[in-house]
Amino acid sequence: MEIQQLGDHSPDKFASLALAPKGRTDPQEGNWGAQEKAIDDWLPINARRNAKWWYSAFHNVTAMVGAGVLSLPYAMSELGWEAGVTVLILSWIITLYTLWQMVEMHEMVPGKRFDRYHELGQHAFGEKLGLWIVVPQQLVVEVGLNIVYMVTGGQSLQKFHDVVCHDCKHIKLTYFIMIFASAHFVLSQLPNFHSISGVSLAAAVMSLCYSTIAWIASASKGRSADVDYHLRATTTPGKVFGFFGALGDVAFAYAGHNVVLEIQATIPSTPDKPSKKPMWKGVIVAYIVVAVCYFPASLVGYWAFGNKVDDNILVTLNKPKWLIALANMMVVVHLLGSYQIYAMPVFDMIETVLVRKFWFHPGLMLRLIARTAYVAFTMFVAITFPFFNELLSFFGGFAFAPTTYFLPCIMWLTVYKPKRFSLSWFTNWACIVIGVLLMILSPIGGLRQIILKIKTYKFYQDYPRND
């Protein structure tokens, strides 16, 4: 959508109007309002509001069921049976509750919709403080996920190549990451959530398929003869730090909160039919799919391999070759959609800043340059730091826990103000405490693993081939 200048008013004129006091009576203010509305309609999040409840379902599945499910058996090996099952169940329940709160708060003010996470944060904490609290956390999650998905997409392509062409010359992971990134240079030009619906639907279907393949293949293989269910680490410090890192892995698996308001913004809303009804219906379906994907894959994978399981369950599995190759290609298709789901709010932020703060002309050229630069940045970081599980552990606690576990609860307490010592009051404070502990403990384990990996890793040199 090209936005034409209104009358003879230049961007400089509109900029001066924007900086003028709120009570201005400038005769150009009406034109400024029209320009603002045109820009708002052009931005990715607000462009289309005609989605149905099933859009919510597959967008949320695509957002949550990603690379994280492949690391859950590894997390189980660092938690053990009792703690692992408890953490998985509690995380599913708590994140469903906090996601419900965010859906409810999307239209907490009559006649207004909080289409972006930071807009809700600004309402709860204030215009400036809300931005400083929410935006850095959300960017770390979304950009971090895009980097991790670059790594995982490259690993899955590499695994596919090694399985179908075992005798072929080994190709470094770096090149597979670049191949995976090349698709995103094209897909990133799709303008909004509506335009990526087909990619997201395919990704949601693939996530259900490859997670099912992972646990069925593990079950078919059966329990290894030398399976060991003791914790992976052998020393007390290793067990403690491994436990902390595994909490981050689980937190990483429930990251849909960072895009839920942006997804809900695509659903039409009226006083009689608010968007929260179809949105919540889609969320319930999505969380059922999440349970079907997460629990069998993590429990059966750990049952089959014990503490010998790799940080990516599909890397551990090698037979039947055709099925493992197929599963890895399904992961690639899924990650194409997941990357775009998390990149879209970032694109929205970038384009908002470029158009509203720096007065770039909104249009195809702006998106081509800005989005291409973003994809190139995530590709470069992924090539430089291809530490899959270690990245999950660190980012999982550092930013995923706040935006998923306790920020929704704090906003709920701030805005709705439930009666002190009521069930809602106790529940939200319990979630806040759990989220704070996750934020503090899990990055410690993840950072330690990253440091250990860097000590044994030569940059720009690929890992040995896992045959």
From TrEMBL:
Residues 50-445 form the Amino acid transporter transmembrane domain. The keyword Cell membrane applies. It comes from the Eukaryota. InterPro entries: AA_transpt_TM. Pfam families: Aa_trans (PF01490). Its main location: membrane. Gene3D superfamilies: Amino acid/polyamine transporter I. It is found in: Cell membrane. It is a multi-pass membrane protein. Keywords: Amino-acid transport, Cell membrane, Membrane, Transmembrane, Transmembrane helix, Transport. One of its GO terms (cellular component) is plasma membrane. The chain crosses the membrane at residues 53-72, 79-100, 173-190, 196-217, 283-305, 325-347, 368-388, 394-413, 425-445. The keyword Magnesium does not apply. One of its GO terms (molecular function) is amino acid transmembrane transporter activity. Belongs to the amino acid/polyamine transporter 2 family. Amino acid/auxin permease (AAAP) (TC 2.A.18.2) subfamily. PANTHER family: OS05G0424000 PROTEIN-RELATED. This is Amino acid transporter transmembrane domain-containing protein. The lineage of its organism: Eukaryota, Viridiplantae, Streptophyta, Embryophyta, Tracheophyta.
